[in-house]
Structure formats: C-alpha cells, structure tokens
Amino acid sequence: MEYIGRNPWAGQRVHPGRRYLVVGSQQAVADPETIGLRRRAAAYSTVAVIGVLSNGLVIGVIYGQPSMHTNYFLTNLATADILVCVFVLPVTLLQNVYTGECNII
After folding, report:
1. In total, how many domains does the chain have?
2. Residue 68 pLDDT
3. What are the tens digits of pLDDT across the range 1-56?
4. Which contacts of 55-61 are long-range, i.e. CB under 8 A and separated by 24 or more positions?
5. Are residues 55 and 92 in the same domain?
6. Does 67 lie in the same domain as 86?
7. Predicted local distance difference test score (pLDDT) of residue 32
8. How open is the CA angle 44-101-98, to the nearest 5 degrees?
9. Model pTM greater than 0.85?
10. Which residue, 38, 24, 31, is CA-closest to 3?
C-alpha cells in the first residue's frame, strides 16, 4: 500500500486534495486516519449535543415544578454538566486530533 497525493482515477468520485490509499485493486479508499478522526468527532459531537439537551431538560423540569424550586443541587449539577459539554468536550476533541492520542480509558 502506498499513499498518493491526488486522484489518478478518472471518473471516480473522490474528494480533491484528500489523501487516498492505493490498495491492490487500484481502488480509491479514504485514509484510515481521516476516517478515525471523523468517527471521533461525530462521537464527541453526539455526546455534547445529548448532554446539553438532556441537562437543559432537567433544568426546565426543576424550574417548571414549583415543588422542586429548592432543589439547588440538581440544578447546579446540570449546569456544570452543560458547561463541561460546551467548553471541555470541544477542547478535548481538538487536543486528540492534534496530538493523535485518544485517552478515553
């Protein structure tokens, strides 16, 4: 296998400027590193969006129910989790992309 810089295959639909991997059958395959980065970015984005929406729902329920207005612990916990989803997850994703390491476990 070897890396090539441009699309040598006329008529194949590939993204210009992207690196492709030449496999034995001379078929254009996207770089495995790029695929891994896309999957990681999609996973981080999904976690962030679900985290913001679900914790926003928790805060909405707490403020919507008059009997739960004194539940400051859950409100603060949900607020802190929203801040983590908004500020920490994007920074962690960028760190993983630029360093090439993924320290999940």
Report:
1. 2
2. 86
3. 444 445 455 445 555 555 555 555 555 556 666 677 788 888 899 999 999 999 99
4. 55/79, 55/81, 55/82, 55/85, 56/82
5. yes
6. yes
7. 62
8. 80
9. no
10. 31
> Higher pLDDT residue, 24 or 89?
89
What's the full length of the chain, in residues?
105
The answer to whether 82 and 51 have CB atoms below 8 angstroms apart is yes
In terms of domains, do 56 and 20 share one? no
Cβ–Cβ < 8 Å for 40, 102: yes
Dist. CA 51–CA 54, nearest whole Å: 5
CA angle 25, 30, 36 (to 5 degrees): 130
Residues 21 and 39 in one domain: no
59 with 10, same domain: the answer is no
Q: Residue 63 pLDDT > 60, yes or no?
A: yes
Same domain, 67 and 42: yes
37 with 16, same domain: the answer is no
Domain housing 10: 1-30
